[in-house]
Design goal:
alpha/beta
Length: 274
């Protein structure tokens, strides 16, 4: 899918997530002269990217506005930016818990609007971005946003916005949960007597290689990670004994379900607060 870069990209906020997205786009050929970042600190972002510390008086026609600040700031940001947005502009929001209907109420002149929820590996081109748009957003705008997101990794359109918080809990929050798992795997190895530095390296390499293997198997044979796990775990062997602990009473599934539920519920509470 060919990338059709926006005529002008205006980022409001450039923290961890928006910063990763921008870095990847610049690596893939986005002209930094097309980018303006609103950043109260004024800290530089990248060579050639304009950084401003206050809201501009105008925005160029055809601008794509990326809302990348904290969700609680939406009211103040919309009050300053919405009057500058015309019908030819687009708004892409990565604000957790902020519904499209709320965005439309705050940016009434903008027809083409997309919610997006990326995760941190987008900076490597290996992320996951969930996308949602309603029927008011044009097919061309959806295609252009999908092409813009493509260099970031997997893009998944969500048909029902009611599932957006669930998807955010899985893929948006998922990297943090996996980082915690890697850390726990290393610490468990250390608890068994493996030197801490070795356990950390081995845990990280094990997860990285296993994830790559699972992706390759899915693409080539359609085998799921569950199938691979059972294939590795020979009856009566060491792996099977360990998996019996994880599988007892579905304890691993229950733990992860509780984890995603807590994240989802927080997203819904944020939406009510907005």
């Amino acid at each position: 899918m060919a990338i059709r870069w926006p005529d002008h990209l205006f980022l409001i906020g450039c923290g961890n997530m928006a910063g990763q997205m921008l870095a990847r786009w610049l690596d893939c050929g986005l002209d930094p002269a097309r980018v303006t970042v609103l950043r109260p600190s004024g800290r530089p972002v990248a060579d050639g990217v304009t950084v401003v510390t206050d809201y501009p008086a105008t925005l160029p026609a055809g601008t794509t506005v990326l809302l990348g600040m904290k969700p609680y700031q939406i009211a103040d940001v919309a009050a300053a930016i919405a009057p500058l947005c015309g019908a030819d502009m687009r708004v892409v929001s990565i604000l957790a818990g902020t519904l499209l209907a709320d965005l439309r109420a705050r940016f009434p002149a903008v027809r083409d609007m997309v919610r997006a929820m990326p995760n941190l590996p987008v900076g490597l081109g290996e992320g996951v971005t969930a996308l949602f748009a309603d029927d008011r957003t044009s097919a061309q705008a959806k295609a252009d946003v999908a092409a813009l997101i493509a260099p970031l990794g997997l893009a998944e359109w969500i048909g029902d916005e009611a599932l957006f918080n669930q998807v955010t809990a899985l893929s948006g929050c998922g990297p943090a949960f996996l980082f915690r798992f890697i850390d726990a795997l290393a610490r468990a190895g250390e608890a068994l007597g493996i030197p801490a530095d070795q356990a950390a390296r081995m845990a990280l390499a094990t997860v990285q290689g296993s994830a790559n293997m699972a992706a390759r198997a899915s693409a080539r044979t359609g085998d799921s990670p569950g199938v691979l796990a059972n294939r590795v775990a020979s009856p009566g062997g060491m792996t099977r004994e360990g998996m019996n602990v994880l599988d007892a009473d579905d304890r691993l599934l229950a733990l992860l379900t509780d984890t995603l539920t807590a994240a989802r519920d927080r997203g819904e509470a944020m939406a009510r607060g907005a």
